[in-house]
Specification:
heterodimer; A: Helix Hairpins; B: 490 residues; mainly alpha; two-stranded antiparallel ribbon; 21 helices
Amino acid sequence: MDAYIGPLLFLGAAGLLAIGVVGMLLSNHLFRMVLALVIAEAGVNLMLVLAGYRWDAVAPILQPGVAAQPMVDPIPQALVLTAIVIGVGVQALALTLVIRIREAYGTLDMAEVRARMEVDVAAAGGGEATGSRERPAGGRPLPGPGALPEPPR
Amino acid sequence: MMAYAVALPLVAAFLLPVLHNASRWLGILVGPAALVAVLLVVFQSWQPAVLPFAMDLGGFAPPWGITFYVDALALLFCGAVALMTLLLWPRDEGDGDADALVRRRSLTLLLAAAAAGLALSGDLFNIYVFYELAAVASYGLAAERGTPAAYAAAFRYLMLSALGSVIALAGIAIIYFETGTLNLAHLSLLAGELQGPTGMAAFLCLLVGFGVKAELFPVNAWVPEVYGVTTRRTAGLLAGLVSKLAVLVLVRLLVLVFPQEGLRDALLLLGVLGLIGGELAAWKARDMTRMLAFSSIGQLGLVFVAFSLPGTAGLVAGIVVAVHHMVLKPGLFLLAGQWGGGLRGLAGAARRAPLAGLLFVLFALSLVGLPPLPGFWAKFLVLTGLAGQGGGLGWLAMVAILVATVLEVSYLFRLAGRLYSRGDDEVPAAATGGGTVTAGVFGALVVAAVVFAPALWDEVQDMGAGAGDAALYVRTVGPMVPTMISGGAP
């Protein structure tokens, strides 16, 4: 049993990472992108913990009167704690931005948000929008801010 | 002592909002005071007799404790962090309330602290933490304007950067799994274990991860979007400073841990792709901000090409190209902030603002590489290095650099010609004030580089030789205790 569980967990960690990365690259929905990021971070954190884990060892605590035994490497666990804290902060910030984007543009569709942003950036820069993948140059103009339905409150 | 370069801006960043509430003047002064103190610390540490030296933070010996490694290159970047942040210190742009300005200054200080940490740290995980700190601060700065486009650009930037961070963390996990350490000096000793395909995969993970901030080719989609929505000062700070710190981290990794030839070729190829892609997009851009953003991608491509050259020559060329771009790009962004608007609306702008026009021409000439301006030496060093190296990729890179130079001449002087053309003198572009003066400081730095070229050349040679010496790094950090993983029982 023990011989299988290590590789199995590694595979699981790599799988989570792959699911997350692919999800972030392919998803076109802002909230799903954040979820994919959460999954990818979980996968990579699991990978870090496994990097220092020993199946035949105890928790790395020295106690008086107890003979020293082989111990799990505590450094990756400390690293993972830091990585989790950073991850939570970034995810919270990402969700805040999602809320603000939804309030401003009334959509969570990445292609639409991107097209609207390109127009706004070009207007702020004083030039006309150059073509993008979602909105080729010379195409139909995008609906104005009032043309989209208001987000439900 | 050098730990203050990180600690002072960090403390000031958190104190600034509190002090601002207590007294307005205290709030204005605390940020610049912290940065000036950092500059003083850097000047005090710049003694060739004691460099390089290493510091164990908290008194914990490596490889478990975190090491700060201080050599001339790290000091140069620390000083640049403080100086650039001072010059590009956020001003009242006239579009936000006082609280927004305080938040912006606080985030800028946070960015400065993280950037100094990236320059000094000698521990891979510590570098990751500082990188994330810089990333979070720059997400905030990307959204600083509070416009819908700013939020959208910040979110897209955050997603790309977080993806890169996850991949970099996976690379760190691989390295720890293979070697059992994350201290750079210790990794340098164990570099033999990272020679195989696993080590290569780890480096590519780190390259993608840290490449996001360094505007590396496949992961730089955020650049034109973010620079389009931030203030020009922030754009200058991100393009000029933060990108170079990410490059510095990658260079340290290449020198110390991954001396393989194949990895340098990968870096060279990505650099060439970034160079050509960025310059072509800049040539096509129709407003000055995005022209500068795309040209910054191209220039960073040149930095990667320079650092991919082997040995001291590559490091020297890389340092010169990187510092040159670090001075020029913020200056150009400040001028863009002064003028704003699309290229079409800039007709005759230089005749209304002669000094700004003169500075633009100076920057443009140096960027293109007209002797004796520093840009010439930067490109000259890279080209001679590539010619010396030879090989198919080397020749490809040389052609790419020459093509990029032609493109630069084309779009920069098209703009310069328009600036001096007899425009129809419509509405003069709104001046935001102070931009030209600060850009003038950058211009003075360029001229000073011409005047003091021989002295700077010696300095850069020493710097490159010191930074390229992996054995010196290991010796300076000190002897390593055997790792716990190989030792078994504690």
